[in-house]
Design a protein that fits this description.
The protein is α+β, with helices and mostly antiparallel strands. Among the domains are: 20-217, 2-Layer Sandwich (Heat Shock Protein 90), CATH 3.30.565; 223-388, Ribosomal Protein S5, domain 2 (2-Layer Sandwich), CATH 3.30.230. 37% of the residues lie in helices and 21% in strands. Strands 1, 2, 3, 4, 5, 6, 7, 8 and 9 form a 9-stranded mixed sheet that branches. Strands 18-17-19-20-24-25 form a 6-stranded mixed sheet, sandwiched between helices. The chain has a 5-stranded mixed sheet with strand order 10-11-14-12-13, sandwiched between helices. α3 packs parallel to α6 (185-198), α12 (427-436) packs across α18 and α19 crosses α20. It is globular, with a radius of gyration of 28 Å. The protein starts with 9 loop residues before the first helix and ends with a strand. The relative contact order is 0.08. The structure holds 3-[3-(1H-pyrrolo[2,3-b]pyridin-5-yl)phenyl]propanoic acid. 3-[3-(1H-pyrrolo[2,3-b]pyridin-5-yl)phenyl]propanoic acid binds at residues 48-49, 52, 75, 77-81, 106-107, 167.
């Protein structure tokens, strides 16, 4: 900067201070500086292009991960204005790139993706990048400005002609801030896919130069295509999703609905393309209208008789796959994780759109109404049976935690934050775990054989299984739809299964159970997966436990030439004695636990329905892959 003007104006100083604040405390702006934070940089830049698309000026966005670790995001929008502002003396481009939260002022109203958890704007990405380059194509010219750690290297300048209009932002995340974090192409692609679903007609390409792969997402049906996709391994009750769309009071409302013959509900709500995992006013409005319309329509058709009572929300939501997407000028995100849409007026907006739209649709499609109605009535009857089964079980005190299952070897500690529950497959492994554990704070629950696949069963059948009842009782929280995480008896719930195909199947069944029946426990980050070793290598007088195939290769490589190397493969937990099990898998000082984490609930939902649903082929493919995003966590 020495060659640049020396007389910094107050404005410049403010900018530099702003960038410095971002670099000093990056977590405040992007959440974290791990892989998740790194991905946020990409999302911030893409969001700006999606804003341009939502304003109707852009239909192509291209994301590219380059060889050198930089990322570029190109769009065919109007191009960020480059002319100089009369009072600030800065171009709009430089302002957007260097002034915190400056993005919004130039959008000229309209909807913005930003405003969510982070939504901090391009200047934050710029501040956290080793270098950034922006190219704007406008008025037949290409303009360029480059930056280093957020500071402009020069003024915006024309560098050549241009065809069409648009903006390309290329940045290289600062390695001193994002220590060895790497982009996960799959995770980024999943978000791009979601963006494409939420913006009908928008083309999004994501390419990875490193492995020479490219994916393009474009959905003519928008969120209707999204519901089709979520249902693709399920049997649907009507081939064409119901799609409703309207604008009320400045809120764009879009809803897509498609029923399947399963028992769970998969509803996802979005506000300005941000997944509102805790729902909010748009979801409340949808549910209220949806329940009312179905009841009224079924009464009109005499499918519901005069003396039948109304179907409940749970009845009409069994087997429902739905996407609710609203776009509004000033979304308010609330709650601890900003996952809930606050704007109260949106409830009525969505309610009126869904009431009218769905009512009309069902009037015009009596056959579909009948099929959906039959499904809902069946759900109501099953729910009544399930309630009776549950009441019976509760009356016998089998679920409330007052009588803990005999199989449970509980710990002596009573403070849940210090307690751990190991869910262990099989009695023999359960025996080793009971002897090996620290009984002060570790409890063991052995599960016999396979547990029921809850993806294909309702609560009544589920509760008939002793293993599942034992699990529910031991945890103390109750099950869907009445889970109280506050009552969880162990703040670490650890699934410990054999490192073989059966073990991975049981783990998936358990994950499915938690995902469908106690998702709150996963959201609250209490669910873990134990990592038992795969091999024990004896070399000379030493031995080493090996947890991954990669570790094995590395060790064997380093031991090449050494005599007396012996390797034992551990197929099951039962092959280890209690002391070994403690040393390798249960001792908090030395073990590794994987925390189960749902970053992308719709993606996890799709995987579970595929894994455990009717569609056998993809299930075989997936059975050994991990089901939820499982994060490495050193505990
Ligand atoms: C403000 C005004 C105008 C365009 C944009 C912002 C814009 C920003 C970004 C960020 C990434 N891609 C973008 N594309 C456009 C246009 C104002 C006008 O031409 O009248």
């Amino acid at each position: 900067m020495a060659t640049q003007k020396q007389d910094y104006s107050a404005k410049d100083i403010q900018v530099l201070e702003g960038l410095e604040a971002v670099r000093r405390r990056p977590g405040m702006y992007i959440g974290s500086t791990d892989q998740r934070g790194l991905h946020h940089l990409v999302y911030e830049v893409v969001d700006n292009s999606v804003d341009e698309a939502m304003a109707g000026h852009c239909d192509h966005i291209q994301v590219m991960l380059h060889q050198d670790g930089s990322v570029s995001v190109a769009d065919n929008g109007r191009g960020i204005p480059v002319d100089t502002h009369r009072t600030t003396g800065l171009s709009a481009l430089e302002t957007v790139m260097t002034v915190l939260h400056a993005g919004g002022k130039f959008g000229g109203g309209g909807y913005k993706v930003s405003g969510g958890l982070h939504g901090v704007g391009a200047s934050v990405v710029n501040a956290l990048s080793e270098w950034t380059r922006v190219e704007v194509r406008r008025d037949g010219k290409t303009y360029r400005q480059e930056y280093e750690r957020g500071k402009p290297k020069g003024r915006v300048a024309p560098v050549g002609p241009a065809e069409g209009t648009g903006t390309t932002v290329t940045f290289k995340a600062d390695a001193t801030i994002f220590q060895d974090a790497e982009y996960d192409f799959g995770v980024l692609a999943q978000r791009m896919r979601e963006m494409a679903y939420l913006n009908r007609g928008l083309w999004i390409t994501i390419a990875n130069e490193r492995i020479d792969s490219e994916l393009t997402f474009y959905f003519e049906g928008g969120i209707a295509s999204f519901t089709r996709h979520l249902n693709h391994s399920r049997n649907v009750l009507h081939p064409k999703p119901i799609f409703i769309e309207s604008e009320v009071g400045g809120t764009m409302v879009e809803v897509a609905i498609q029923y399947n013959d399963g028992f769970s509900e998969s509803t996802y709500s979005f506000a300005n393309c941000i997944n509102t995992i805790d729902g909010g006013s748009h979801l409340t409005g949808f549910r209220s209208a949806h329940t009312r319309v179905i009841n009224e329509a079924l009464r009109k058709q005499k499918i519901l008789k005069d003396d039948d009572s109304n179907l409940t929300g749970d009845d009409v939501r069994e087997g429902l796959t739905a996407i609710i997407s609203v776009k509004l000028p000033e979304p308010q995100f609330e709650g601890q994780t900003k996952g809930r849409l606050g704007n109260p007026e949106v409830k009525n907006h969505v309610e009126s759109v869904v009431y009218e739209g769905l009512n009309r649709y069902l009037e015009e499609h009596p056959q579909e109404l009948r099929r959906i109605g039959d499904k809902c009535l069946m759900a109501a009857r099953a729910r009544e049976a399930a309630r009776k089964a549950r009441d019976l079980v509760v009356r016998k005190g089998l679920l409330d935690g007052s009588t803990l299952p005999g199989k449970l070897a509980d710990c002596s500690e009573r403070d849940p934050s210090k307690c751990e529950l190991y869910i262990v497959e099989g009695d023999s492994a359960g025996g080793s775990a009971k002897q090996g554990r620290d009984r002060a704070f570790q409890a063991i629950l052995p599960l016999k054989g396979k547990i029921l696949n809850v993806e294909k069963a309702r609560a009544d059948r589920m509760l008939a299984f002793e293993g599942i009842r034992n699990l529910i009782t031991a945890l103390g929280t109750g099950i869907h739809p009445q889970v109280d995480v506050g009552k969880l008896r162990y703040h670490k719930v650890i699934i410990m299964t054999d490192a073989d195909v059966d073990g991975s199947h049981i783990r998936t069944l358990l994950l499915t159970f938690f995902f469908r029946q106690m998702q709150e426990i996963i959201q609250a980050e209490h669910l873990y997966i134990a990592q038992p070793p795969l091999y024990r290598v004896q070399h000379g007088r030493q031995h080493t436990w090996i947890y991954t195939e990669q570790e094995k290769d590395t060790l064997l490589e380093s031991l090449r030439g050494e005599r007396n190397v012996e390797m034992q493969r551990y197929k099951g937990l039962g092959e280890m004695n209690p002391e070994q099990l403690w040393d390798t898998t249960m001792n908090p000082e030395t073990r590794t636990l994987l925390k189960v984490d749902i970053e992308d609930a719709a993606g996890a939902d799709e995987i579970f329905s595929q894994l455990m649903g009717e569609d056998v082929e993809p299930r075989k493919l997936f059975i050994q892959a991990h089901a939820l995003q499982v994060k490495n966590l050193d505990v």
